[in-house]
Amino acid sequence: MENEKRVAVYIDGSNFYFKLRSKEIDFSNITRFNYRGFAKWLAQDRKIVSNRYYVGVVRAGENNKKGQELRKEQQRLFAHLTSPEQSFEIKKGYLMKSGNLYHEKGVDAQLAVDLLVDAYEDRYDTAIIVSSDTDLIPAVKKVKDLGKEVEYIGFAHQPSFALQRNATLSRLLIKNELKLFNFKRLQIS
Length: 189
Known about the structure:
This protein is of the alpha/beta class and about 190 residues long.
């Protein structure tokens, strides 16, 4: 199919993780989420040219029991995402501690750069961005200036109105839609 539309899927991992785990969605085990099925559902009948998941890497000292458990949970997620069944590329940033809080660094910038480079190099027709981070708006605007489409995928209980205004198309997810991608509910045919 020569005229088949190409899509690239960009998931802001931390943003997605916290939205899935919110009380409104209550999806507690993200290693049971069917990311590939979700990406195909978002792409509809278009060809997916890349699936990427952007996240800050958890690091923890040997004596940090909570940190070690978080690191192990993240490693399980990475193994799930990169499995042949999911086929996602993980783009890693890092976490920086400030006081008692950790902040992700390098993730939004990496997502924005990939979004722009892929547009300039004509790797997709439509970028599907699963993030509510308004820091991406300048990149979204430039991608649209380059003649590409940008679909913002957000969550109905916490939408980003700014991304909705700047995207070509937006879709807000509800809990029942996300339940479709729980491996416990998948039928094996």
